[in-house]
What does this fold into?
Amino acid sequence: MVRAVVLPAVNAPLQLTDIDLPDPGPGQVRIRLAAAGVCHSDLSLSNGTLRQPAPAVLGHEGAGTVTAVGEGVTRVVPGDEVVLNWAPSCGDCHFCRLAEPWLCAHAGAAASVPYATLAADGSPLYPGLGTAAFAEETVVPATAALPLPDGVPLADGALLGCAVLTGWGAVHHSARVRAGESVAVFGVGGVGLATLQAARIAGAGPIVAVDVSAEKEELARSAGATEFVVAGEDTAKRIRKLTGGHGADVAVECVGRAQTIRTAWSSTRRGGRTTVVGIGGQDQQVTFSALELFYFGRTLSGCVYGNSDPAQDLPVIAGHVRSGALDLSALVTERIGLDGIPDAFDAMLAGRGGRALIVY
It folds into this structure.
C-alpha cells in the first residue's frame, strides 16, 4: 500500500488515504517519489477548469527513483533518478512530425486510464495528468520518466518537470527574449519565479515583476526582477514609464485571467510580444478592437509547457543549475508533507508564496 492524496470528485475536498499500486506493466515504470511541487494546474484539475477523470491522484511536477520496470523498458533501470514528464510526446502524430512535441495529440492519454485502486474498496483511480505525483509512489509510462541530469539535487529536480521547463521555455522558445530586451512578468508564483530567472539568464533588462501582493517584491527581486509593480488600474502605464515610455518588449502572463492577459498585452510596446502561460477558464474572455490590433502590431501567443522539448531542454537548464545561474531552491517558499496540500491550494488561491514542495 502507498499513501496518496485523492481527489474523490471535481470540487470535492482532498483525502489523504491508502492506495494499491500494481506492478508496472509493459512499457511502464514504478517510481518512488522524492518530491513533488504543488502547481496551479493541479488546482485547475481539482476545480474542473482542466478536465480530469475522478477519483484521481493529482500531482504532475515530481522527481524520484525508479524501483521497477515493466516488460520492454530499456530507457531506465531500477535505481535511476528521474524527472516526471506529464506531457510525453509520441513522436509520430501530426504535431510531433512538425517538431512541436509540446502539442502532441497523445500526450495526455495516460490520464484517462485507471492506474491504481483505493485500498479501502478497490475503486479505480486515475492519474492526474498521467503522473499522479501526490503519492509516495507512482506508476507511469516509461516515456514519462526523464533521466535527472547530473549535478541536480533530486528533490529540487522535481521543479524541472513543470515550473522551470515552462518558465524557461516561455522566455527562450515562445517569446524568444534577446539580450537587452525589457521583460514584464505577471504573477510571481512558481512559474513566474522561474520565468524571472530565465529572463535574467537571457540578459534581459529591465525586468519588471507584477503581482497583486506587495509582499512578493523581495522574492521577485531575488529571482532577477529589477523593478516591482503592485498590480492596479495603472499597471500598463507604470510599466511603460519603467521602459523608456515605449512599453516592454516582452510580457509573460503567468496568471490565466482575462484582465491580466489584457494588461500584459497593453504593457508592451508597438511590435511587442506577449506570451500567455497561465491557464484560465472558458469564462475568461479577452477583447481587442480591430483598430488597435492593426495599429500596435503586437503579438499575442499561447504557450504550452513552455513550448519545450524536455529531452533537449533539461540538459541545457541543468548546465545553468550547475553553474549557479539558476537557483531551483529559490522557487520554493515552503516544504510540506502530503497532508499540507490543501493548505498549499488555499495559499495559491490567496496569491501567497512561490512553490510549495512536497518532500517525501
